[in-house]
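Translate sequence into structure tokens.
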Amino acid sequence: MERRELVFMDAKSSKFWNIELDGDSHTVTYGRTGTDGQSKTKEFPSQEKAKSDFDKLVASKLKKGYVDAAGEGTGADGDSDLLPAVAFGSVNKQADIYENLKTFVGKKVADYNPDKKPARGGKTIYRFRSDWEEANLLPHLEHFLASEAALEATGIVIGCWSGDDSSASPEPVVDMLVEHKDRLPRLVAIAFGDITSEENEMSWIQQTDMSPLLEAFPNLQVLRTRGGEGLQFSQPKHEKLRALALESGGLPVEVVRSVCMSKFPNLEYLELWLGTGEYGGTSSVQDLQPILSGKLFPKLKYLGFRNCEYVDDIATVVVNSPIVERIETLDLSLGVFTDVGAQALLSLPEGGALKKVSIHYNYVTNEMLKKLNALKVSIDASKPSNMDDDDEWRFVAVGE
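Result follows.
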């Protein structure tokens, strides 16, 4: 018997597609993530024909952008083949700061309820958070860590830890995860800060040092955080990390420099929300040079400098940088991107690996957009601001 579990995520959907080969037949189950989906079984004259069709269907799905899901069927050490495309399939659009995650790394996210038996098999990723009335994140997390389901968990989501105290630090949450790391042997993905604007504005979120998590979980592949205040990477190194996303209304230069001094040899996906000075962003394009040199992350495929007020400056430099010859996606979305940056993109080199550039949410004129669309790379210029050329009040997509 042979089985493949595939998932697909983009800005609008999250789907799964599974196929199981059993002798001279195979069964396909498919649907939206979080549902049971629907199944179809097909029989063949021989096992050889069934296997041939099995391989054909899998190849077709992979060509359409599906990737292998994390979870059962991974290596004995719990290390899943969890691709960044699965983890961050929706990042080319504006992150929804008004709703909590519904899916993460291709799986359904559900709030943990200690009164219900947690689902087994790692099919559901649980979110732990406090609300205005009760600080229940830590008790619920402790309850889950004592369960058998924790031993199978491949992902975990940490939501609002502050409750009615917006100045609360999440350090106790990190401490609990580190202390009970042996209860999470299969953990490969963490979203730390799934906090909506109603719970706490992004610029108000108090973060903490993430390095203890990197050290405690050697098989971690995906780390996503939200909030720049207090965020640190005191020991920015990890052998297996493949995707790192730091969302903020303003990323402190100290964090940017930590990333630029990091040792993440297998990083394929890097997304930095650089933000604005008004909300704590203190970096400049000069601070990004170690990344742009192309030497820091040899396996990088996706590079995102998002939600950035000086994104035009980045565009004028990145077109001549070594990194642009190697990455497949350049994401300059959600920032104050104008005709100045667009003019620079017209000088993008041809013949490299670059396939897509995103300037989603932009201040580019229609005339310049026509020139961009004539480039050989795919340009995502959706959601233009439609502001007048002489309008000086231009903002990044997410500040508070």
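Note: Confidence is low (pLDDT under 50) at residues 70-87, 89-93.
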